[in-house]
Hints:
It is a single chain. It is built from eleven helices and no strands. About 75% of the residues lie in helices and about 0% in strands. It has about 270 residues and is an all-alpha fold.
Amino acid sequence: xxxxxxxxxxxxxxxxxxxxxxxxxxxxxxxxxxxxxxxxxxxxxxxxxxxxxxxxxxxxxxxxxxxxxxxxxxxxxxxxxxxxxxxxxxxxxxxxxxxxxxxxxxxxxxxxxxxxxxxxxxxxxxxxxxxxxxxxxxxxxxxxxxxxxxxxxxxxxxxxxxxxxxxxxxxxxxxxxxxxxxxxxxxxxxxxxxxxxxxxxxxxxxxxxxxxxxxxxxxxxxxxxxxxxxxxxxxxxxxxxxxxxxxxxxxxxxxxxxxxxxxxxxxxx
Length: 269
């Protein structure tokens, strides 16, 4: 059946609307003008040099890197347990528990951030990088569960049963058989959670206290017009980094599906 011309036009218009602002980043990142406007004034790399010389930027990036690595590892670890339990075992309240785990994926982040802030202040926990990590784990875990559930569902149960027949314990079977087979999904989950955490703004803004992270730093720089070109250069670097991470995650996702003999029905890219 031929595709509708109107549907094709809608898809093209949607993609232009979605990606045109991103396409403008390199234009203004290399534009020799402090004013973000057309016509372009010329080619320069001064904004990248200014970005590189900003020590506050590197401090914020270091904080974000610490948070993103911690949140991705914790979220993926929790996701492994949840995905394994949901695909292997039957227990009372399974659907409700999984629904609660996935709930942060659909809740407004503003509500989640305010709720976390109220709870942390009520129990006397000072705002720091640790509280940001807790918030990011809450947001990233549903994505890890979704990715890893697909990886665990594609496993052949006969491999696990064969390991039991050969004398392996459940623990050794999980460590020697299950984990290597789902490792592409684990790597994919780590990369996706890392990217989500690195880009997260609302939770970082609410729970950061006096700790500056990269997303909050970028938001603050827009108050100073002279800093905007350097921020555009930083945005271009971050977009390239995100594309690389998502591409690697998609590679490992497809590799995991191919190893398990499953059918690829779509992915991140």
